[in-house]
Design a protein that fits this description.
disordered N terminus; binds heme C; two-stranded antiparallel sheet; mainly alpha; single chain; Cytochrome Bc1 Complex, Chain D, domain 2; 3 domains; about 375 residues; two-stranded antiparallel ribbon; 18 helices
């Protein structure tokens, strides 16, 4: 029902979104970037255009909402959108402004994009995040690797330990984090209400001044447009036998045998919590999920990471301890690192996966690089 509405009006109203998309990641280094689906959508829709001379009716509210939905790339399921946060083009645009605005941080240097950079597959290529400058004059370093925003819209919870339930809940976390942005939502809301451009936009989108609720909803709506699909894997699944190399096909079979139990397609995660033993040999291993539940059995458990675009989101693991995809796969394939709480499914891999299979698995994971929007920072911010 939603898709049928995405016909004529949908195509037109998608244009603003399409303009935001400046570049789409190609499938391999040698390949030219493919055109974004959002860009091609209006052209494909010409068949649905009303005949010349017929004025289109003004779009209804639900049609406007449908128009702000990103086109779901090949291979991804329907996008879950909370009922109390429907998507509109204006809300997504407000979310983009907030996402890139460094005035959210206490010293004006850090935005969401600092650690989740569109140019770096919506993550950052350092082991753990650097936030605002600390009392010693150096940027403060957090304890965990920044996950990509790509396809985060599908996860039933957020963070390595799943401590936030939704993207809305997540979005207000970094602002008050003393290491990351070092501010507080109260401070940000007060300051942003002084910025007339933001007040106007919040009025337009939410009918209120700048509020924490609106801040969270706008950023979450923006993040829901950052999807990756239409990879060689998806094209193969859709019937193109040549989309995968022989090594990738062998790797896919091995992946089904060894890895899919946790990294379940199509998102390549079942979003359960497992202990793979990453960092278990360190003096102070990350307690992971145990921090949230207080349960000893959750010690060292992390939410199974989704693996789309994995070739581009290095370094790997919750502590960013591994630089290359080869090392990450080899670590998993050997059944992780022994510790009292190691997942049974991890232990089951020990001694089973051959070196050739590891090489094929790496090739297969490269086939999960597809198309995703790379969005530019705004030219100017509300004043
Ligand atoms: C200083 C770096 C930094 C900044 C700034 C930052 N993040 Fe993050 N982000 C991280 C790290 C590190 C994690 C993982 C933390 C954890 O799991 O405990 C994370 C986790 C997330 C997640 C969860 C993804 C997942 O798969 O679980 C989302 C979504 C997210 N951030 C969005 C945002 C938004 C929106 C902003 C701006 C309001 C923001 N981040 C600002 C570093 C940062
Ligand atoms: C028992 C569930 C489970 C199985 C089976 C499993 N993984 Fe994982 N995988 C995880 C968890 C949990 C993590 C995160 C570990 C951490 O950072 O502490 C992870 C992390 C990864 C990462 C790094 C992701 C990132 O964003 O940093 C890769 C790559 C990976 N796994 C590939 C594989 C491959 C290939 C296989 C099969 C050989 C496999 N995994 C089998 C649970 C599993």
């Amino acid at each position: 029902m939603r898709t049928s509405r995405l016909s004529w009006f949908g195509g037109c109203a998608l244009l603003p979104l399409a303009l935001m998309v400046v570049m789409i990641a190609g499938c391999g280094p040698a390949e030219a970037p493919r055109p974004a689906q959002v860009e091609t959508e209006p052209a494909e829709d010409t068949a649905d255009e009303p005949p010349p001379g017929v004025e289109p009716e003004a779009p209804r509210a639900d049609e406007e909402a449908a128009a702000a939905l990103p086109v779901i790339p090949l291979g991804l399921p329907d996008l879950p959108i909370p009922e109390d946060n429907p998507m509109t083009p204006e809300k997504v645009e407000l979310g983009r402004l907030l996402y890139f605005d460094t005035r959210v941080s206490s010293d004006g240097t850090i935005s969401c994009a600092t650690c989740h950079d569109p140019q770096m597959a919506w993550t950052e290529h350092r082991p753990t995040s650097e936030g605002i400058t600390g009392p010693d004059g150096h940027p403060q370093v957090g304890g965990r690797n920044s996950p990509t925003i790509i396809n985060a819209a599908y996860a039933p919870n957020q963070f390595w330990d799943g401590r936030a339930a939704t993207l809305e809940e997540q979005a207000v976390g970094p602002v008050g984090n003393p290491i990351e942005m070092g501010s507080s939502m109260d401070t940000v809301i007060l300051a942003f209400n002084e910025i007339e451009g933001y007040r106007e936009r919040f009025q337009q989108v939410f009918g209120t001044d700048v509020t924490e609720d609106g801040f969270a909803k706008a950023i979450a709506a923006f993040e829901r447009t950052i999807l990756s699909g239409n990879s060689p894997y998806d094209q193969y699944k859709a019937g193109d036998e040549d989309a995968l190399t022989d090594a990738q096909k062998r790797g896919m079979a091995a992946f089904d045998d060894y890895c899919a139990v946790c990294h379940a397609p199509p998102l390549f995660s079942n979003f359960q919590f497992h202990n793979a033993g990453v960092g278990a040999d360190l003096p102070e291993p990350d307690p992971g999920r145990m921090d949230v539940t207080g349960e000893e059995r959750d010690r060292g458990r992390m939410r199974v990471p989704a693996l789309r675009e994995i070739a581009k989101t290095h370094p790997y693991f919750h502590n960013g301890s591994v630089e290359t995809l080869e090392e990450a796969v080899a670590f998993m394939a050997k059944g992780g690192q022994d510790n009292p709480n190691l997942s049974i499914q991890m232990r089951a891999l020990q001694g089973r996966v051959s070196e050739e299979e590891v090489a094929d698995l790496v090739e297969f994971l490269k086939a999960l690089s597809g198309e995703f929007p790379v969005i530019d920072p705004p030219d100017e911010f509300p004043q």
